[in-house]
């Protein structure tokens, strides 16, 4: 079994501060693949990585900040049907339900509404292409699934012949729920932090994993540019410094820390060296198109 992580995009957002696409990662198992988050540019990045929609098995959304889901519509519409070597069979899009803690949260979209409203917003195009190009009905292919949060800290959200996916809640206030995901395969395990402050729950989810893909923030970037106190407070309370990401990797005993979803610009060496203060294992600062094979745990 060949299992690979591909970092399709590594930028935080919603902001364009360079050429890097927005946050999105692929887990590839033989020919099949799964996407974790749908940041800006993920559709092109997936195509450039050689991923064909016909091999897409499912999408996983860590939380509903726009920089994690903005290109879900583009990915669905650009990978649909035989004319684009796209999907012709159904697949799940798995993500957060509505936020029960927020005032008026029941009126705001969860994953089900996000998918349904995407499809209804493009109903004209979808209808035409079903009639005109004999594409399958996209409504029947996309199965939105909202994650129910049970009482136990780590819980299963998906399983098929390739992957067993578990999740835990992480700390990304004021967003709720925000999830980290763990993909276990016959060749090893890959964990995605999603967006989170330093999280003990994530340490437990990631325990003994081969690869931990962890977000990181460079607070100095924002401080030096006089971002507002509220903005700085959000960054400090709901994201993780690279040194703390290294702490999480060390506490979990993972083999390889891959830093992605980098908020604030800094040289790759800076991200690496900050994480290396607290983690002695392998550290990578991800870029779009980087591939990490589980058997060798190195970039190629
Ligand atoms: Zn976020």
From TrEMBL:
Please tell me whether the keyword Nuclease is annotated for this protein: yes
| SUPFAM superfamilies assigned to the protein according to its UniProt record, in alphabetical order | Metallo-hydrolase/oxidoreductase
Keywords, in A-Z order: Endonuclease, Hydrolase, Nuclease
Keyword Nuclease attributed:
yes
Q: Which CDD domains match?
A: arylsulfatase_AtsA-like_MBL-fold
Metallo-beta-lactamase domain mapped to chain residues:
21-205
For this protein, the record's InterPro entries field holds: AtsA-like_MBL-fold, Metallo-B-lactamas, RibonucZ/Hydroxyglut_hydro
Protein name per the record: MBL fold metallo-hydrolase
Per the UniProt entry, what species is this protein from, by scientific name?
Micrococcoides hystricis
């Amino acid at each position: 079994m060949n299992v690979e992580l591909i970092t399709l995009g590594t930028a935080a957002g919603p902001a364009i501060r360079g050429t890097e696409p927005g946050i999105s990662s692929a887990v590839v198992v033989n020919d099949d693949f799964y996407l974790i988050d749908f940041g800006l540019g993920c559709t092109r990045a997936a195509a450039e990585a050689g991923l064909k929609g016909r091999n897409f098995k499912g999408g996983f959304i860590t939380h509903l900040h726009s920089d994690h889901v903005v290109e879900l519509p583009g990915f669905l519409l650009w990978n649909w049907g035989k004319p684009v070597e796209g999907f012709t069979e159904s697949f799940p899009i798995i993500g957060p339900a509505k936020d029960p803690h927020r005032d008026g949260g029941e009126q705001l979209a969860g994953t089900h509404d996000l998918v349904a409203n995407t499809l209804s917003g493009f109903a004209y195009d979808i209808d035409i292409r079903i009639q005109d190009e004999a594409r399958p009905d996209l409504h029947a292919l996309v199965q939105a699934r909202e994650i129910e949060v049970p009482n136990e800290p780590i819980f299963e959200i998906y399983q098929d012949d390739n992957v067993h996916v578990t999740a835990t809640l992480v700390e990304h206030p004021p967003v709720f729920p925000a999830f980290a995901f763990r993909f276990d395969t016959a060749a090893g395990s890959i964990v995605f932090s999603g967006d989170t402050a330093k999280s003990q729950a994530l340490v437990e989810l990631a325990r003994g994993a081969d690869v931990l893909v962890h977000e990181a923030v460079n607070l100095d970037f924002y401080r030096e540019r006089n971002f507002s106190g509220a903005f700085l407070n959000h960054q400090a309370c709901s994201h993780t410094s690279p040194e703390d990401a290294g702490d999480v990797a060390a506490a979990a005993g993972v083999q390889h820390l891959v830093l992605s979803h980098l908020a604030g610009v800094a040289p790759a060496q800076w991200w690496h060296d900050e994480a290396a203060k607290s983690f002695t294992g392998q550290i990578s600062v991800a870029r779009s198109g980087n591939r990490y094979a589980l058997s060798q745990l190195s970039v190629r």
